[in-house]
Amino acid sequence: MGFGRFVVTRAVSYTLVLFATVSILYIATAGIIQKVVTNSATAVAAGFERNLLIGGYHGNAQQLHTLVETYKTNYLLSFGYNQPPVIRFFIQMYQLLTLNFGQAYTLKWDGSTSVSTIIAGYLPNTILLFTTATIILIALGTIIGLLAAKSAGSGWDRIIPFIAVVHSSLPAWWLGFLLIAALGYGLNVFPTAGMTSIPPPSNPFFFGLSVLQHMALPMLAYLIVGLGGFAYVVRSLVVSTMGEDFVLTARARGMSETRLLFRHIFRTASPAITTQSILAITGSFAGALTIEIVFNWPGIGLLTYEAIFANDLPVILGITFVLTIILLIGLFIGELVYGILDPRIRVSA
User: Fold this and answer.
1) Which of 75, 88, 158, 330 is most buried as measured by Cβ atoms within 10 A of its Cβ?
2) C-alpha angle with apex 163: 158 to 169, nearest 5 degrees?
3) Could you report the per-residue pLDDT of 36-81, keeping only the tens digit for each?
4) What CA–CA distance (Å, rounded) separates 296 from 252?
């Protein structure tokens, strides 16, 4: 199968999977969604009325009431409230897939209660911290895993599984508190919470420097918890590849271990490592709830906590749908990369 046909096939498959997955989420939360849409219509209508009054509306109270009710009705009609259940399902599915999640009950971002705006405000902060940390984790984990595999059976190799188990067992919130106590308050090296100093520096250079300083402790906590596990995965994938026949043949021909490792073994294992990397990067968009709470980092994790604490259903639903869509997009990209790195996948497809 050619790569173009492979891409089209996978695109169709994942489009169907996306529709099926969002449909299942919709059906499971249909009652809540209708409640959210109704409450959002009331909130939007109230905002419309407030804007009219601020703008110097000159009509009487009855005319104002009629305008507001008409606005509210039109909002509900945009979600298919005058349509049969089947038509309403497709209309609301379209709204969800175009990220129209209505209005938040209590949470805001820059004065806006639009759920899409709120999520769009918090998501870049999560990407800045956790996606950056994940890329660093992948780079370091790959190097450590390769070195461990190269020295398979040595003391260095045996310590990697131990580190992976210990580090992955550490509660992120507990580790965060330790780092705050030691490096934040004890040595006073790094700031302990927030994204920037208060007030934020007006100079762009010092603003960026402040953000980097505030990223240090949560990023360190994230790396400590996840680095050992990723290195162990890389090490296991590379060691399993070392048992292939082509490796024995290359060694019999006198090829050096370093060249064999990096030019042949790593290349063969790279599709599986790349898949793990893409999944890790995709997962980083969800942030890390406990780390964000401990360090008061304004990302998706902290937003989820605040939405649950405030019982803000539109935001909770919006986050759930957005992260589901991001996960499926990440899996789709992973399939394409896998097809590029391993032509056998295209042939089997």
Assistant:
1) 75
2) 140
3) 888 888 888 888 888 888 877 777 778 888 888 898 898 888 888 8
4) 57
